Amino acid sequence: MFVTPAFAQAAGAAAGGMNDILVQIAPFGIVLIIFYFLLLRPQQRRAKENAEMLAKIARGDTIVTSGGIVGKVTKDNDPGEVEVEIAPNVKVRVLRQMVVEVRGKTAAKA
């Protein structure tokens, strides 16, 4: 006899070994796909929306900073900063990244 039973069993196990590895790795792949759709994708969408909001800040908008200060934008010439009036004749420069909310244009006083 040219092939021993032990050698034949080892050859069969080696052929099925690739399928076993795929079956063991498949749950990790599924978890990564779920992780992407539940965590990474929404986070990327929020970051994109925030960048668009910061780019659209214009003169006259009422904004809220991360420190909770509410004010009206009086100048937005600098790409990294805006000038905000927080009280009558009190203006401060604020970094655009510190703006958390844009409430829109202030209503004109009658």
Q: Can you describe this structure?
A:
This protein is α+β, with helices and mostly antiparallel strands and 110 residues long. It has 2 domains: 1-55; 58-105, SH3 type barrels (Roll). 46% of the residues lie in helices and 28% in strands. The protein has one helix spanning 5-55, and strands spanning 61-65, 70-75, 81-87, 90-95, 99-105. Strands 4-3-2-1-5 form a 5-stranded antiparallel beta sheet, covered by helices on one side. The termini are far apart.
Brief summary of the model shown:
This protein is an alpha+beta fold and 110 residues long. It has one helix spanning 5-55, and strands at residues 61-65, 70-75, 81-87, 90-95, 99-105. The longest helix has 51 residues, at 5-55.
From the N-terminal CA to the C-terminal CA, the straight-line distance is 106 Å
- Main beta sheet, described? 5 strands, antiparallel
Helix content: 40-55%
Order of helices and strands: HEEEEE
Summed over residues and divided by their number, the pLDDT gives a mean of 85
Rg (CA only) = 30 Å
Enumerate the strands of the largest sheet in spatial order, edge to edge or round the barrel. Answer: 4-3-2-1-5
Assembly annotation: single chain
What percentage of the residues does DSSP assign to strands (E)? 25-35%
Class by SSE composition: alpha+beta
The tally of strands reads: 5
Number of separate structural domains: 2
Number of helix segments?
Answer: 1
Low-confidence stretches: none
What general form does the structure show?
Answer: rod-shaped
